[in-house]
C-alpha cells in the first residue's frame, strides 16, 4: 500500500439531506418517540477479526483488476425467532429489536438470505447513538430471491427495528446470514464513506465536469456486500428506450459474487469542486447478471428495481464502432471515493489485455486525474458522450503517468460472433435489432407533481467554519412537471431573516445554485434555516422538501487540513505542527496501518513549521503527494507550497515553514525542485526548475482541460510565462521533463 502525505485547503462540508426513495421510504423508528419500551435490547457481539492479516491480503491484491475491499464478512444466524426481543404495543402491533456490535468496526452492514416484509410493516436500521437512520424498508424492498443487503453505517454498533402491524403478525421473514465488519477507517471526517482516493483526482463537479452533468448521474458505486468490495458501473440505454435499468461494469468485479447482495449507490458525489462529502441514500439493492465474458472483461447487469425518478439518473448512450476516440473521459469512484472525473486529451489506442488482440482501448496516460482500485468497471466516454468501453486494469495512478485499458464495446458487442446471448451485448442493448452503431443517452424519470420545487443541499455554511463571514449558498431543484422560472428563497441565521427572489428557467430534474447575501457573525454557535416559497408565484404541491435547518460554528482564523495515509508500519511515522516560537499546535493521533487521517485546524496569522518524521529512515515510500495551504481569500481555494522528493524518500525528517497573513500564504522554504511564483498572479508567472539539466516542455490547460499555451522551459533559470490574456480562474501547468510529468496549479486573478 502506498503511503502519502499532503496538506490541503479545508473543504466545505456539503450537508446531505435524505431524499425519498423507492427503496428507502424515510420516517422515524417508533422507539424514538415511545418512552415505555424496553431499554435492555439484546446484543449480539461479533468475534474479533485480524485486521493486520486483512490489510496484508489487500497489499498483495492491490490493483484495478481486483475489487477494492473495505470490510470483512462474518457468518451469523440471526432472525426474528432466535435473536432480539419482541414487544406487543397497545394497539396489537408488534415491535422487534436487535443490536449488533463488532469491536473496533468503522462501519457495519448486513446481508439477509431470507427477507420478506408484509404490507404495512416497516424495518429501520440505525446506529446505536441514533445519529444515522436508514429506512423505512417496506414491502417495496421484497424481491423474487427473498434477499436483502443494506449500505454500510458508520458505527461499531447498529440496531435493527422491525414494526409489524397486528393484521400481518407472523408474516415477516428476516434472517441475517452475514454481517460486514468495516476494518478500514473510511468514514472519518472529510472522506468518501468507502475509501479515500489520491490527491490528484478531480471531483466530478469541478469545471472539468461541466459538460458531463448528464452522464455523471448514470454512474454508480457498487458496494459488493458479500465480500465488502467496491467497483464502479454505469446505467446504459437500449434501442427500445424502455428505461430497463441495464448496468455496465467489469466482469472481474462479478467473480464469485452474489449480485443479490450488491448495493448500487447513485449520486455519491460532492456538490462542489473541493467538497469531500456526498450522499449515500440513493441506492438500489441487488441485480442479476445478463451477459458477461472475460476477453473484454465486460458484465451487463439488470438491477432488481426500476430507478426512482427522484434519483434523476441519465441512461447513458454508447458506440459499438471500432474507431479510436480523439479524446476520452472517465467518470468513476477511485478507491471507493466520491465520484471523480479524468480526461485524456490524446486519441485512444486499440490494444489487448490478454492474448486476444484488439479487445481493449488503451489510455496512454491521464492529463487530468487518474484511476485507482474501485474505478474498475467505470465507463470510458468519447467526446460525443457515448460509452466505448469499461475499465479492466492498468498502471495509472497519481504517482505514475501510465496506461489504463478498457474492454471495448466494439468487441463485447458480438464477442467475436459468440452465438450465446449471455456472452455479448448486442441482444440486450439493441433489442429492436436496429443495427445502429451509436445510441444517445436519455432521461426517463417522470415527476409526481405539477409544481414541486425542492431545496436539496446547502454548500455554505458548513458545520464548522474557519471564518466569521458567511456567504450562504443553497441548491434548488425542480422536481415538478412545470418549468419553474421564479421562486423565493428565504434564509435565517439566528434572528436575521433575508430572502432572494431567484429567476431563471428550470425544467424538471434540473438544479441551480443560489447565492444568498453574506452575513458577518461573532465567533460561536449559530442556527441556520432555509426554505422555499411561491414557485412561479403559485403554491408548491409538495412542501416536504422545501426546508433545511441545522446548527453551525464559526471561528476566526485560516483553515488548514492535515491528511496522512499510513503504510503497513505506522509506528514509524509521526508529525508535528508548531509555531515558529516552538509552541506545539498539533501532533498526530495514535496511528493504524494503511489508514487515512484527516484533521482540520483553524490557524491565526503567523509562521508555522510542519515536520513529519519516519524512524524507518526511508521517509514516505512511493508517491508522497502534495502539501496545500488555504487562506481567508476565498478565490485562492488551494495553493501548493511544498512537495517531497519524487520517490518520497526524505530519510528521517521532512519539514516546511509557511506563513499566514489575512490574504495570502507565503512559502519560506521547501524541498521541491519546481517553483511557480507569484501564485496567484496577474500578468506573468515565473517557472523555475532546480536540479534539472535538460530542457522541459510546459503546457498550460484551463480547468476544463483545454490547452491554452505551450512553452519551452530552460533549466536552472527562471522562465517567464505571459498570462495577461487569460481569463481569471484556476489553471493546470504540466511540465514534461522527459522522464516524468510534474503537475502544478496556479491562479489567474484579473
Walk me through the topology.
Elements: E1 4-8, E2 15-16, E3 43-45, H1 51-61, E4 68-69, E5 71-79, E6 85-88, E7 94-101, E8 107-116, E9 122-127, E10 133-137, E11 148-149, E12 157-164, E13 173-182, E14 202-203, H2 213-216, E15 219-224, E16 229-236, E17 246-250, H3 251-254, E18 262-266, E19 283-285, E20 287-293, E21 298-303, E22 314-315, E23 317-319, E24 328-332, E25 340-344, E26 349-351, E27 360-363, E28 379-382, E29 386-394, E30 404-408, H4 409-412, H5 426-429, E31 438-439, E32 442-443, E33 453-460, E34 464-465, E35 469-470, E36 473-478, E37 484-493, E38 496-506, E39 511-515, E40 519-520, E41 524-533, E42 547-554, E43 558-565, E44 573-579, E45 584-587, E46 596-603, E47 606-614, E48 626-629, E49 639-643, E50 653-660, E51 665-669, E52 674-677, E53 684-689, E54 696-702, E55 707-713, E56 718-722, E57 729-736, E58 741-748
Parallel strand pairs: 3-7, 23-29, 34-42
Antiparallel strand pairs: 1-43, 2-33, 4-16, 5-13, 6-7, 7-12, 8-11, 8-13, 9-10, 9-12, 14-25, 15-16, 15-18, 16-17, 17-21, 18-19, 20-21, 22-32, 23-31, 24-25, 24-28, 26-27, 27-30, 28-29, 29-30, 33-36, 35-40, 36-39, 37-38, 37-41, 41-42, 43-46, 44-45, 44-47, 47-50, 48-49, 50-51, 52-53, 53-56, 54-55, ...
Commentary on this structure:
The protein has 750 residues and is mainly beta. It folds into four domains: 38-182, Jelly Rolls, CATH 2.60.120; 202-443, Thrombin, subunit H; 453-554, Immunoglobulins (Immunoglobulin-like), CATH 2.60.40.10; 558-748, Immunoglobulin-like. The chain is built from five helices and 58 strands. The strands form 13 sheets. Strands 14, 23, 24, 25, 26, 27, 28, 29, 30 and 31 form a ten-stranded mixed β-sheet that branches. Strands 4, 15, 16, 17, 18, 19, 20 and 21 form an eight-stranded antiparallel β-sheet that branches. Strands 3, 6, 7, 9, 10 and 12 form a six-stranded mixed β-sheet that branches. A hairpin with a 2-residue loop joins β37 (484-493) and β38 (496-506). 45% of the residues are buried.
Amino acid at each position: 500500500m502506498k503511503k502519502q502525505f499532503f496538506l490541503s485547503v479545508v473543504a466545505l462540508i456539503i450537508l446531505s439531506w435524505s431524499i425519498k426513495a423507492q427503496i428507502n421510504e424515510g420516517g422515524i423508528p417508533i422507539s424514538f418517540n415511545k418512552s415505555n419500551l424496553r431499554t435492555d435490547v439484546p446484543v449480539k457481539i461479533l468475534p474479533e477479526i485480524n485486521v493486520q492479516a486483512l490489510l496484508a491480503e489487500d497489499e498483495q491484491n492491490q490493483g484495478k483488476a481486483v475489487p477494492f475491499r473495505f470490510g470483512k464478512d462474518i457468518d451469523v444466524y440471526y432472525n426474528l425467532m432466535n435473536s432480539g426481543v419482541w414487544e406487543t404495543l397497545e394497539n396489537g402491533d408488534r415491535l422487534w429489536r436487535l443490536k449488533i456490535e463488532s469491536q473496533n468496526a468503522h462501519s457495519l452492514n448486513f446481508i439477509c438470505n431470507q427477507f420478506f416484509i408484509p404490507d404495512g410493516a416497516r424495518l429501520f436500521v440505525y446506529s446505536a447513538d441514533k445519529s444515522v437512520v436508514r429506512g423505512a424498508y417496506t414491502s417495496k424492498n421484497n424481491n423474487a430471491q427473498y434477499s436483502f443487503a443494506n449500505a454500510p453505517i458508520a458505527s461499531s454498533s447498529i440496531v435493527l427495528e422491525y414494526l409489524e402491524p397486528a393484521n400481518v403478525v407472523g408474516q415477516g421473514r428476516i434472517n441475517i446470514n452475514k454481517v460486514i465488519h468495516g476494518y478500514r477507517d473510511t468514514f472519518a471526517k472529510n472522506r468518501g464513506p468507502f475509501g479515500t482516493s489520491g490527491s490528484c483526482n478531480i471531483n466530478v463537479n469541478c469545471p472539468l465536469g461541466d459538460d458531463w452533468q448528464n452522464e455523471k448521474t448514470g454512474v454508480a458505486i457498487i458496494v459488493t456486500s458479500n465480500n465488502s468490495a467496491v467497483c464502479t458501473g454505469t446505467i446504459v440505454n437500449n434501442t427500445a428506450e424502455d428505461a430497463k435499468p441495464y448496468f455496465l461494469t467489469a466482469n472481474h468485479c462479478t467473480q464469485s459474487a452474489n449480485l443479490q447482495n450488491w448495493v448500487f449507490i447513485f449520486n455519491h458525489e460532492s456538490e462542489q469542486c473541493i467538497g469531500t462529502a456526498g450522499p449515500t441514500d440513493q441506492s438500489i439493492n441487488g441485480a442479476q447478471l445478463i451477459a458477461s465474458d472475460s476477453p473484454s472483461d465486460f458484465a451487463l447487469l439488470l438491477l432488481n428495481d426500476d430507478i426512482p425518478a427522484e434519483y434523476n439518473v441519465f441512461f447513458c448512450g454508447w458506440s459499438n464502432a471500432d474507431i479510436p476516440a480523439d479524446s476520452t473521459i472517465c467518470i468513476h469512484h477511485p478507491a471507493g471515493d466520491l465520484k471523480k472525473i479524468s480526461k485524456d486529451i490524446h486519441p485512444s489506442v486499440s490494444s489487448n489485455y490478454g492474448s486476444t488482440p484488439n479487445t481493449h482501448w488503451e489510455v496512454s496516460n491521464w492529463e487530468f486525474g487518474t484511476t485507482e482500485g474501485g474505478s474498475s468497471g467505470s465507463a470510458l466516454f468519447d467526446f460525443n458522450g457515448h460509452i466505448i468501453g469499461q475499465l479492466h486494469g492498468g498502471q495509472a495512478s497519481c504517482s505514475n503517468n501510465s496506461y489504463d485499458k478498457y474492454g471495448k464495446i466494439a468487441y463485447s458487442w458480438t464477442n467475436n460472433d459468440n452465438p450465446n446471448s449471455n456472452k455479448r451485448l448486442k441482444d440486450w442493448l439493441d433489442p429492436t435489432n436496429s443495427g445502429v452503431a451509436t445510441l444517445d443517452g436519455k432521461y426517463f424519470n417522470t415527476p409526481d407533481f405539477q409544481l414541486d420545487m425542492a431545496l436539496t443541499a446547502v454548500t455554505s455554511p458548513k458545520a464548522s467554519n474557519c471564518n466569521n463571514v458567511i456567504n450562504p449558498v443553497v441548491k434548488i431543484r425542480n422536481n415538478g412537471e412545470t418549468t419553474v422560472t421564479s421562486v423565493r428563497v428565504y434564509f435565517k441565521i439566528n434572528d436575521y431573516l433575508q430572502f432572494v427572489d431567484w429567476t431563471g428557467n428550470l425544467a424538471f430534474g434540473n438544479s441551480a445554485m443560489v447565492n444568498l447575501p453574506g452575513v458577518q457573525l461573532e465567533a460561536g454557535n449559530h442556527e441556520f434555516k432555509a426554505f422555499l416559497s411561491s414557485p412561479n408565484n403559485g403554491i408548491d404541491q409538495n412542501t416536504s422538501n422545501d426546508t433545511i435547518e441545522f446548527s453551525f460554528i464559526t471561528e476566526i482564523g485560516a483553515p488548514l487540513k492535515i491528511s496522512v495515509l499510513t503504510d503497513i508500519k505506522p509506528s514509524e511515522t509521526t508529525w508535528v505542527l508548531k509555531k515558529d516560537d516552538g509552541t506545539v499546535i498539533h501532533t498526530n493521533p495514535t496511528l493504524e496501518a494503511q489508514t487515512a487521517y484527516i484533521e482540520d485546524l483553524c490557524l491565526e496569522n503567523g509562521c508555522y513549521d510542519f515536520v513529519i518524521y519516519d524512524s524507518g529512515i526511508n521517509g514516505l515510500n512511493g508517491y508522497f503527494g502534495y502539501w496545500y495551504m488555504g487562506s481567508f481569500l476565498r478565490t485562492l481555494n488551494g495553493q501548493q507550497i511544498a512537495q517531497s522528493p519524487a520517490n518520497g524518500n526524505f530519510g528521517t525528517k521532512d519539514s516546511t515553514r509557511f506563513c499566514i497573513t489575512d490574504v495570502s500564504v507565503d512559502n519560506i522554504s521547501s524541498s521541491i525542485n519546481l517553483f511557480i511564483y507569484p501564485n496567484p498572479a496577474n500578468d506573468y508567472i515565473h517557472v523555475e526548475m532546480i536540479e534539472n539539466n535538460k530542457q522541459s516542455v510546459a503546457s498550460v490547460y484551463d480547468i476544463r482541460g483545454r490547452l491554452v499555451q505551450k512553452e519551452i522551459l530552460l533549466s536552472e533559470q527562471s522562465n517567464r510565462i505571459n498570462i495577461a490574456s487569460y481569463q481569471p480562474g484556476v489553471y493546470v501547468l504540466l511540465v514534461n521533463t522527459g522522464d516524468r510529468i510534474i503537475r502544478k496549479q496556479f491562479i489567474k486573478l484579473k
